[in-house]
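Researcher: Here's a chain I'd like modeled. Treat it as a single chain, no partners, no ligands.
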Amino acid sequence: MASAGNDRLKVIHIAGVLYNLQDKLLYYPEEPAHSRIYVELPQGLSYENIFTHTSDGVQINMVLIKQPQGRFGTAPTMVFFHGNAGNIGHRMMNAHCLYLYSGFNILLVEYRGYGKSQGSPSEEGLYLDALAAMKYIFQREDIDHSKIVVFGRSLGGAVAIYVSTHPHYSRKIFAVILENTFTSLPQVAKALFHLGFLQRLPNWSFKNQYPSVIRIRQLQLPTLFLSGQSDNLVPPAMMNELYDKSGSILKRLVKFQGASHNETWQSNGYYDAINNFMMEVYKSKVVRSSADTRLELGDGQGDHVEGEVKVI
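Model: Modeled as a single isolated chain. Structure tokens:
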């Protein structure tokens, strides 16, 4: 009995230590080196380097890559939430391809404590950063507010799910794209680290939660899931679970064979998958409009949940 009691005390002690270390174990704003000093900006493209403030007064950096003047005001605008390491400059090549091949304006959002943004990262802080980015984009009068697409990769997927289910934006967003993201932070931590004591920790003991698997049931917007099947950080099964539990009335899951966690965007067929999905959403809105129904997909009234899984 004494041994069992000691074991419980050890687990509680370790849980307390881990709780205080979790931010350092999750957020890597200085990896690779100098990521807080140098942030690459777009080359050969029209862009704005933007600084805005969140509701709690933190100044964050964003970069808006703009389609040429004749298309900027009518093109879809992607709000891009990246993963847990580096800065927005490390996603510039991916953004350039989205600009060229998919015709997006792209707002790259830098989390607090990353790149040129002030503050320190935290779960609640990243949510406030996302809301500040959405507020900014919807306040601009030169952007088509009916074509706002929210994109999230890895940790950014959890942020994207949060903002896409937020009461203020859940009916204003055109579509959501999620790439290699997890069901929740406790679940992915337990999947990554096969440590006995970690498996025994209750989920509530984790400082960072990012409970996407719960929130995604409320996500009724058209959603594209992009899943690298050789992802060694986020188990692809988690993308399957998010897809299955999504409340979206139009959802697609595209699996890329051999694609890793950070390189799925380099896979053959990646941009075709995005373009085909966008065209499908456009068409679905036109059909619903012509039938004299609501333009917003996701009102939940008599809608048919439509899903499709594709392997590339």
